[in-house]
Specification:
The complex is a heterodimer of chains A (313) and B (509). With 313 residues, chain A is mainly α. Chain A has 14 helices and no strands. In chain A, helix 1 runs antiparallel to helix 14 and helix 13 runs antiparallel to helix 14. In chain B, strand 2 and strand 3 form a beta hairpin. In chain B, helix 3 packs across helix 4. The longest helix of chain B has 18 residues. Chain B starts with a helix and ends with a strand. The chains are: A mainly alpha (313), B alpha+beta (509). Chains A and B meet through helix 2, helix 3, helix 8 and helix 13 of A and helix 4, strand 12, helix 6 and helix 12 of B.
Chain lengths: 313, 509
């Protein structure tokens, strides 16, 4: 057991090292120059070269990489070129909206998807099932930014229930800040629920015809007790996987939604960093997102061990 | 009908800006939606418009521009006393001006700030080449001596980007700037990156007397607070304006005019705002051949390009003149090669004369500004009709700003500019600016223009500059276009301007 866990952790470290290297190389290969962006459209080539030198961007790439690696190993993700603050601090400042947006979206997705998926499987091939399957297909194919704009148009512009964008402004209370997450969370949650619904349905269909379910029924057990206690419990492993992956996807998938709703989260930080080539922020943010992704997968794997005694790594 | 609404909206905005509306009361907070987070809050360190728009409320320069784009004193007490040879500028300073930290501005601060400007700012570095000395004559007078007469000096000291701002001498050694202490009507209270930049009224501010006059004149400070909120997505800015979430929303897509008209904020049109331009790479490749550049000028059809880019004639004008009517620099001298609907036959002939070998003409553009891309698409069709083989290089803006510095990578790049108050600040006038236009005729016309200090004589000399531009085609001006913003009905006192400012803005009940 401990050895399995150690192996998984070793694997995670290898993945993180690969991510770190690949992101560093891709960022350096991408054309564009933070110095040119900072100095503005009328800056001369000499000014740009001077600023590049001051920022250390003209140093040989292997030297920059070595400096970066040493920094990361000491827990230093570097200094943002544009924000004039350490990358770690910038990420922490933006963690709150991203964290709560992910949690709210996931709660909305699971609250919708689990009952709908179970009912669809139970009432397989009925009108209800077909309607839910069609809606799920439709929802899965909607781009999140489009749904976001539609929700914004209805609930912010027409009804005036919410602000169209932002995170509450100076001195906003926690409740006010959370209010700004409602529309983006609904947009992300609805779309994510489609995938979880389909997995729940498929997984339930697999187990509903298994022998132990038939046995439970033949013992005269209450039907919903059979479905929930026996079938759903055993169908949970693949569902848990997809919920975990959805959570990880939401962390990075919130990029577009955060940008549309002007939320100052990790997603919008990544977008603005890419647009202005803030290399340290891109590297740091992607490293953290990849780390969370790997961590979520690790937790799921560990949950398997706890849920299903047959699982061995 | 739409045109009537547009004119009406502009008229209302202008009338209110002229101070005809009454009931200006102190108080209130406004949210201003901007196109994003500024790369810096040091206006010396960047030429980006966004930096200037925000920081002009915090920092001030010795001079600024009045409503007619004439240079007018701001921190200076008067226009400079210029020696008869045009080489010495003696600048009297206003007395008792306070910085946001409570210190009083002296000539030592001005000298230190201008020296920093020479070292840090793009425009300052260029100007440093003609400056031989900056000295404090006494506590309230500064003297700038030049190596040769240089008329653009005052406009350069007046601009709000790569700006010659005056900061305390003790902060002038900072690069990057970390203490944002200025003399402006609003001071920086708080910056939360990607959320807001909060400015509050500076109570010790000493406004010029009288009435506001463009960026000059009195600065009234009605509002308690101005918050600049970055909203990078243009659709979200539009929705926010329609919902009335922002008192002012900047840089909106012109196609959203009707939608905004039906919302809570009202549209404000700046007509004209600026000009899109195709910059030619005169240094290397196809466009080092003048005949090819002339063929491109003949082939392009500005009317169709502008229609594709802006959708309605309400938002553009096919105008060849580098400055529209209303500017002192307005002239139609030399503009004969500009054909609003193109002249394909003339282009074919010029192309044949040039001995064009069929090499692809590479147009470098970006979709960051969708109208650039739309113009490029129409241009491609017209250029191909004239016999060019065209290759479009579509990249993001960050890539474009880097690639345009390499003459091996492009033949034309597309950009735009507001109408700068001083023509010599336009990119192509600088020999080292991407495009690298250098010629004897250019230098002759531009040197004479820059050496003359009399505005009327300069206006006449600008005719020669424009003639050389059309003769040598270092760039092709496509036309004029308007800018769209949105403003809350209860926000008054905001004059439509390329860099909107809010020190005279006030809220009505």
């Amino acid at each position: 057991m401990l050895r399995s866990i150690a192996n998984r952790i070793l694997g995670m470290l290898v993945v993180m090292a690969l991510v770190l290297t690949i992101v560093f190389i891709i960022v350096r290969l991408t054309p564009g120059d933070p110095a040119a962006i900072m100095l503005g459209p009328d800056a001369t080539a000499a000014d740009v070269a001077e600023l590049r030198h001051r920022l250390g961007l003209d140093a040989p790439v292997p030297q920059q990489f070595l400096t970066y690696i040493i920094g990361v190993l000491h827990g230093d993700l570097g200094q943002s070129i544009f924000l004039n603050q350490p990358v770690g601090q910038a990420l922490l400042q933006r963690a709150e909206p991203t964290f709560f947006l992910t949690v709210f979206s996931l709660v909305i997705a699971v609250v919708i998807a689990l009952p709908v998926g179970v009912l669809s499987a139970y009432y397989r091939d009925t009108a209800f099932d077909q309607a839910m399957t069609t809606i799920a297909m439709f929802a899965a194919s909607i781009p999140s930014f489009w749904l976001g704009l539609v929700l914004m148009q209805i609930f912010a512009v027409q009804l005036g229930w919410f602000d169209t964008s932002g995170y509450g402004g100076p001195g906003a209370s926690f409740a006010e800040r959370m209010q700004h997450l409602v529309l983006p969370a609904v947009a992300l949650g609805l779309i994510s629920s489609a995938l979880i619904t389909r997995f729940t349905r498929a997984s339930m269909l697999d187990v509903l015809n298994d022998d132990y379910v038939r046995t439970a029924r033949s013992k005269g057990m209450d039907e919903w007790r059979v479905v929930v206690r026996h079938a759903l419990k055993n169908a949970l492993i693949p569902i848990l996987t997809v919920i975990g992956l959805t959570a990880a996807l939401l962390i990075s998938g919130a990029i577009v939604t955060e940008t549309v709703f002007g939320l100052p989260g990790v997603g919008s930080l990544i977008v603005s960093a890419v647009l202005r080539r803030d290399y340290p922020v891109i590297q740091g943010a992607l490293l953290v997102v990849a780390g969370l992704y790997v961590l979520v997968n690790f937790i799921i794997d560990m949950a398997y061990l706890a849920i299903d005694p047959r699982v061995r790594y | 009908m739409k045109r009537m609404h547009l004119v009406l909206a502009t008229a209302i905005a202008l009338l209110s800006a002229n101070g005809l509306a009454l009931a200006q009361e102190k108080g209130g907070v406004i949210d201003v939606a901007t196109v994003g987070e500024p790369p810096t809050l040091d206006p010396m360190a960047s030429t980006a418009d966004l930096v200037g728009i925000i920081t002009q409320n915090i920092f001030e320069t010795l001079y600024t521009f009045d409503a007619n784009w004439n240079t007018t004193p701001l921190l200076a007490a008067a226009l400079p006393d210029i020696s008869s040879d045009g080489m010495t500028y003696t600048i009297p300073l206003r007395q008792g001006i306070k910085f946001h930290d409570g210190e009083t501005m002296t000539s030592a601060d001005v000298v230190a700030s201008l020296e920093r400007w020479e070292k840090v700012a793009t425009r300052g570095k260029q100007t440093a080449e003609v400056i031989s000395g900056i000295e404090a004559k006494d506590d309230n007078t500064v003297v700038i001596t030049l190596k040769k007469p240089y008329a653009p000096l005052l406009p350069l000291l007046s601009l709000n980007n790569a700006a010659a701002i005056i900061i305390p001498a003790k902060n002038a050694g900072q690069d990057p700037l970390t203490d944002f202490i200025g003399t402006g009507p609003y001071k920086l209270e708080e910056r939360v990156a990607d959320q807001y930049i909060r400015l509050t009224r500076f109570d010790d501010y000493q406004s010029l007397p009288g009435e506001p006059n463009g960026y000059g004149g009195a600065r009234k400070q009605y509002l308690d607070e101005i918050r600049f909120v970055p909203v990078p997505d243009p659709n979200t800015r539009v929705e926010g304006a329609v919902a009335g979430q922002f008192a002012y929303a900047d840089s909106l897509p012109v196609e959203s005019y009707s939608k905004i008209e039906g919302g809570k904020d009202k549209p404000v049109v700046l007509k004209p705002f600026g000009w899109p331009v195709f910059v030619m790479n005169t240094k290397e490749g196809l466009n080092s051949n003048l005949k090819i550049r002339q063929a491109i000028q003949a082939a392009l059809a500005p009317n169709d390009m502008l229609l594709a880019a802006f959708g309605s004639e309400d938002f553009f004008a096919a105008n060849a003149d580098y400055y529209p009517e209303g500017y002192i620099w307005h002239t139609d001298a030399g503009t004969e090669p500009y054909k609003p609907d193109g002249d394909t036959e003339a282009a074919k002939k010029l192309l044949a004369d040039a001995g064009y070998d069929g090499s692809p003409l590479r147009i470098l553009t970006s979709r960051q500004y969708e109208f650039h891309y739309k113009m490029a698409q129409v241009a491609q069709a017209y250029l191909e009709a004239a016999g060019f083989k065209v290759e479009m290089i579509v990249v993001d803006w960050a890539t474009l700003t880097q690639q345009r510095t390499d003459p091996a990578k492009w033949d034309i790049y597309i950009t735009h500019s507001p109408f700068l108050p001083e023509p010599s600040l336009t990119g192509i006038m600088n020999d080292s600016s991407p495009g690298w236009w250098v010629s004897d005729a250019k230098h002759k016309a531009l040197d004479a223009f820059n050496a003359e200090s009399d505005p009327q004589k300069r206006a006449k000399l600008f005719e020669d500059v424009q003639k050389v531009i059309y003769a040598e085609v270092p760039a092709i001006k496509i036309g004029d276009f308007n800018a769209l913003a949105a403003q809350a009905p209860n926000l008054e006192g905001v004059t439509p301007a390329p860099w909107p400012y809010f020190w005279n803005a006030y809220l009505t009940k």
